[in-house]
């Protein structure tokens, strides 16, 4: 099941990149015709002796697949740190070698127009920055292909990288132009005005993401047009939750053209807010499992997690910009002459500011993940509540779905505490499986938290 769209500050001040968290529920291939009545049969009652209470299932993998999952996880973790180290070293070298001052001089020589200067300076700079991250991105795609998570060819992958890079480059040039205009006009308070200016930009990006950006990479079709029976079942869940999610906001994405993984997510805001289910999820899941997945995604919708995520991100961004202001002031005061940077309003100060921002983002990662895990746990809870009385044996449906999810996505069993804190933006599967089987306010005579 997918998370709300997480917004991370990864580049220049105000350049916000959106990336979906991704978890999904699945079933083995070939079981699409299994119904709720046949998929989960209760154990026959023993009339002679009292059966002992069944122990909750835990997330486990066969030894060979467990070894694969551990190797896959360790490779991704190592790649994460290597990418960060490589990027930081690259930025440091760009600063020490005076690349930014030379680009600034060239930009000022070409034109006095500030927007044209932003293009001449920021365009080549961000292309170089993108090239620094290209080896890690290619290695990540190789890992996904090697471990069976992706079927996308290298040509298609490279074209997606080019399209994404072009969009990011256009946004970066525009935001750099805006940002340095604020720095020139308010040398002491630019961090606050940049934060204020980032809020409408953030809202705009989240709004247009599903309408403009996502269709550049995948095809989306109305779910009701491709599977009207499933859409009708989902409407039952919507009514039970007392929500209004029209069929026009339910979409099917052709993930199978590039991926084997399973996913579903909530994206957009206001009129663009929608629930998206990957076709791989529908192809490999039973109807009860899909309803539970939808219940989780509906939780993000009903509990306003996108809005809450935006507020959280806005608060983090304010802290980052304030810290970046002081870090840049200190760095330029000490090294500005050696780096040939005139001041904070100089185009050439951008690498130093990005360097500081990436350090802040790296340090903040555990807090960011903890907040995301909190929202995902709420969505799990909502999903269990909203399908209660609709999906027979909902706790077992959820638990077995999480198990199958781990098998398909090669989730690592029993990750260490450090790994959970640093890398997990969803609760680990063992925790989710245990919660799914033990959450029972109805049996305790209590009122559910979200769905009354």
Q: What would the keywords be for this entry?
A:
4-stranded mixed sheet, elongated, 15 helices, 452 residues, two-stranded antiparallel sheet, disordered N terminus, mainly alpha
Helical amount among residues, as a percent range? 55-70%
Q: What best-fitting shape do the alpha-carbon axes yield?
A: elongated
| Mean pLDDT across residues | 87
- Low-confidence segments: 1-53
In the sheet with the most strands, the strands line up as 3-4-6-5
Major beta-sheet overview = 4 strands, mixed
Q: What is the β-strand count?
A: 6
- Number of helices, where a helix is a run of at least 4 consecutive DSSP H or I residues: 15
Domain unit count: 1
**Whole-number radius of gyration?**
24 Å
The arrangement of helices and strands along the chain is EEHHHHHHEHHEEEHHHHHHH
Distance between the termini: 23 Å
Percent of sequence in beta strands = 5-15%
Structural class: mainly alpha
Structure description:
By secondary structure, the protein is mainly alpha-helical. The protein has one domain (5-27, 58-220, 298-438). It is 63% helix and 6% strand. The chain has 15 helices and 6 strands. The protein has helices at residues 36-39, 63-96, 99-110, 114-146, 154-185, 190-213, 223-226, 228-240, 279-284, 287-302, 305-339, 350-386, 394-409, 417-423, 429-438; strands at residues 5-9, 16-20, 220-222, 250-253, 264-267, 274-278. The strands form 2 sheets. The protein has a 4-stranded mixed β-sheet. The protein has a two-stranded antiparallel sheet with strand order 1-2. The radius of gyration is 24 Å and the shape is elongated. The two termini are 23 Å apart. The relative contact order is 0.17. Mean pLDDT is 87; it is low at 1-53.
């Amino acid at each position: 099941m997918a998370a709300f769209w997480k917004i991370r500050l990864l580049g220049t001040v105000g350049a916000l990149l959106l990336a979906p968290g991704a978890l999904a529920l699945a079933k083995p291939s070939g079981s699409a015709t299994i119904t709720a009545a046949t998929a989960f049969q209760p154990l026959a009652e023993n009339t002679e002796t009292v059966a002992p209470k069944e122990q909750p299932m835990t997330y486990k993998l066969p030894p060979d697949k467990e070894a694969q999952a551990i190797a896959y996880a360790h490779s991704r973790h190592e790649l994460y740190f290597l990418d960060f180290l490589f990027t930081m070293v690259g930025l440091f070298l760009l600063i020490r070698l005076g690349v930014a001052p030379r680009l600034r001089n060239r930009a000022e020589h070409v034109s006095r127009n500030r927007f044209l200067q932003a293009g001449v300076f920021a365009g080549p700079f961000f292309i170089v920055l993108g090239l620094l991250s290209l080896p890690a991105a290619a290695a990540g795609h190789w890992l996904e292909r090697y471990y069976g998570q992706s079927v996308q060819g290298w040509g298609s992958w490279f074209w997606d990288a080019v399209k994404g890079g072009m969009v990011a480059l256009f946004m970066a040039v525009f935001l750099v132009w805006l940002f340095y205009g604020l720095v020139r006009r308010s040398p002491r308070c630019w961090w606050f005005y940049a934060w204020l200016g980032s809020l409408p930009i953030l809202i705009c990006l989240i709004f247009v993401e599903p309408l403009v950006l996502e269709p550049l990479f995948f095809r989306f079709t109305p779910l009701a047009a491709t599977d009207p029976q499933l859409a009708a079942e989902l409407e039952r869940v919507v009514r039970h939750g007392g929500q209004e999610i029209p069929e026009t906001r339910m979409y099917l994405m052709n993930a199978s053209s590039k991926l084997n993984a399973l996913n579903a997510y909530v994206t957009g805001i206001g009129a663009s807010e929608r629930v998206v289910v990957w076709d791989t999820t529908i192809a490999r899941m039973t109807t009860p499992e899909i309803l539970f997945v939808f219940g989780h995604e509906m939780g993000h919708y009903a509990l306003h997690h996108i809005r809450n995520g935006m507020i959280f991100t806005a608060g983090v961004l304010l802290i980052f910009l304030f810290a970046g202001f002081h870090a840049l002031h200190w760095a330029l005061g000490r090294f500005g002459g050696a780096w040939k940077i005139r001041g904070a309003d100089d185009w050439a100060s951008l690498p130093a500011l990005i360097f500081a921002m990436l350090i802040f983002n790296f340090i903040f990662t555990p807090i960011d993940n903890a907040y995301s895990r909190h929202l995902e746990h709420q969505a799990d809870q909502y999903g269990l509540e909203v399908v209660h009385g609709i999906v027979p044996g909902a706790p077992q449906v959820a638990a077995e779905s999480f198990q199958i999810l781990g098998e398909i996505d090669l989730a690592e069993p029993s990750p260490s505490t450090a790994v959970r804190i640093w890398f997990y933006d969803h609760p680990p599967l063992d925790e989710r499986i245990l919660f799914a089987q033990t959450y029972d306010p109805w049996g305790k005579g209590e009122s559910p938290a979200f769905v009354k």
